[in-house]
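Feature request, filed as a ticket because there's no other form

It would be nice if the structure record came with a short human-readable summary line next to the tokens. Right now we just get the raw output. Example of a typical job, pasted below so the devs can see what we mean:
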Amino acid sequence: MPVEINGLLNHNISSETHPLPFTQFDRDGVIRMAKLHDDWGYDKVLLANAAVMPDNISLAGFVAAATERLGVMLAHRPGFIPPTMAARMLATIDQLMPGRIGVHIITAASDEEVKADGDYVSKVERYDRAREYIGILREMWSNPQPFNHDEKWFRFDGGFAAVKPTRSDIPIYFGGMSPAALDVAGECADVFATLSDTVEGMTEVVNKVRANAKLHNRDPRFLMSIRIVIADTEEAAWQRADELRDTIAGNLGDLDVNTAAAKASGFRRTEEIAKRGDRLEKCFWNGINQLRGGQSNSGALVGTAEQLSDALMDYYDAGVSAFILRGFDPVDDVIAIGRDLIPLLRAKVAARDEENAISV
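Raw output as currently delivered:
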């Protein structure tokens, strides 16, 4: 199947190599980065969500107005906005950027963080609530008539969205490595999204989620987020990786500490992978994960565009058909990945799909 390639869009142009205060909002920077991703062939950008972050639904509308073809993967926490209202908001954004939106349902790793928004239910309860919430979203997007709902987490009479998404529904992305998360993912996810991992690790994840999904007659796609260190030669790429580690080590005092990550199963998995060594498999690099511990989703692939595309094809063969690819330089890496890597990866995926079709 065609590969989906996404980037990340923040509310300012900041990274570990160019840290800016989290409180700084850069309107022009948002437009610049949206247009860069649009111009260089990315399918979507992830708009993240957390208790202290700017409203990403507003940002999604802003991105829609600034781009021609770029979509958004909108991180969304179920329960903070009533599902009936959220369904209408998401359908509205889909009308503004037809067929270009996906919603990434996240439940938050930290009980403490969600209390900042007045949410006091446990993590396991949040996953259970997400299951019901997703069902309501889909009903709102598909039901031609008002309907009533009265279950564990939500109750309403006459819920209805007069305007539906431009397609039958909006793709649901879902992540999490805890048993509760995997259970909900198997039942509800169109795309299972996870942090950086090795090919061996992603093979394990794909098999586990597929087994859960099979119980519900579902066959989700898989997305992995991974960092990219790209250069014209292998030697130059690894030299750049070493330079990045030195630069980020010098910036640690200016980087926000992700205290919530330590409580997330996915980030604990990242920390475990980092302990296995600096370099793994073909070109998987743990340098920044080792530097920042279990609070950073910074597993990276290092090499030339040809080497990186070959490494990503290993993930594709393992079942991963969607990626969030981002580097460490907020601007130059978006361009380099879009110019040198994305076309090569798309071509290799198309060739592999043709080979598989012929062999069937």
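Something like this underneath would help us a lot:
The chain has a mean pLDDT of 93.
The longest strand covers residues 221-230.
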